[in-house]
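hey so i finally got around to running the thing on that chain from the lab meeting. sorry it took forever, my laptop kept dying and i had to restart like 3 times. anyway pasting the input first so we r on the same page abt which one it is
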Amino acid sequence: MHVSYYKRYRMEIELAGKEFVYRLPPGYRLLGWDESLLDAFALAKYRSFCHEIDAHVFPCLGDLTGCRRLMLEISRKKGFLPAATWLLLCDRQGQQPDYCGTIQGIIDSEGRGAVQNLGVAPEHRNCGLGTALLFRALTGFAQAGVERVHLEVTAANEGAIRLYQRLGFVTVKTLFKSADVLNR
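ok and heres what got predicted. didnt touch it at all, straight out
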């Protein structure tokens, strides 16, 4: 085993004066936080991250049990904000309901919003769902009186970085996260 370092960016957005309007494609809907949906949130998180670089940076994201534990920890944090925590459901007629995306929000000790784990399952990407999840969370932060929101993203996740920049996030800091990696 050896240690690898992953470059990450802290990105922020100022909420003042911004309105976040989104439209979900037909067959999708957002479900607000409810503890009875904990397993569905964990499943959506797992499906969104299990084959992504973030599962190497944060190994719990590559394991369904780890995702459930992480979701439970987030929901119990001081500052957890249900209004910024959403589950994406694909509920097309004639198909099984599919929990396919999630975002969680907390208010940190400085009163700023912190996005936790925005993710969309691969087969549901590139149709505006990440934007919808993020806009719904940002609306929840704004309704709670939060003026500034931040998130972290792995530098290799170019699609996510483009999304955040397009929506008004700016990079304010570069960080490095160490992770144990098995020799293969």
